[in-house]
Design brief:
single chain; 12 helices; alpha/beta; two-stranded parallel ribbon; 9 strands
Amino acid sequence: MKLEDKVVFITGGSRGIGAEVARQVGAKGAKVFLAGLEPELMAQVCAEISTENADSIELDVTDLPAVERAAAAAVERFGRIDIVLANAGIAPYGTVATIGRETFDRAMAVNVTGVWNTFNATLPYVTDTKGHVMSVCSVASFTPLGGLHAYTASKAAAESLTTAFAMEVAHRGVTVGSVHPSWIDTDMVRDAETDLPTFVKIRKMLPWPLHSTTSVTECASAIVKGMEKRSARVFSPGSVELVYWSRSVLQSPRAVALMRMISNDLIPQLEDEIRGLGRSLSERQAEQVAIDDTP
């Protein structure tokens, strides 16, 4: 699929991966419609691309009628939707003992229900264009990690949802793909590293390539190539594909036993840090979703 003159609808378009994908597809001649929680930042991204070829709308992806209105606004503005990137997500940190239920529910609402809402609201339009739909599922969808259970559980659910959706829309001529980045140099990852020194220790103890960090530019480039190829899977960095095909080994009893040994000391430290913070989200994300319910 050549991206020139195609219309790309992106949720979570204010910063990070969503914003950079917008810049890169815009540079290839695509028209971009961003949806997210920070309208000022999205306006800046649109200005970088060009006000003629980019537009945005404030959106909470957990609100299905709002997502429907956003998709309709994109079509009203540009006449069609060819590609969808369900990128909006949050990453709570904390164990079952320390995370608040409201935060866990919000993670599932944004990371799973938000993807469903995006698929549902845009499906009539990508059916018309025989388009391509993608969701950002992360390497976390097949590498569960203590201290990030809400994030890894929601991303596993999002991957399963995306794979099932691909089967459901194949007869419509719509293609679907999941995106699996490892640690990307985004605000979300930097916030966690700033808030939780133990999180940094846990990351460093993970095997290659799970401990490495990839630039936003490189990750976005992989996603854009996935759009052009209508890929069913996108990995960033490419070495994550090895992890994907080794997922049964990573979740084997021996591997789980090893992770338990590693986490014996680190998880209590992480819990102490989270209790000290008094929240399960970074300050930026907590402000956006109005949640601060850590016990």
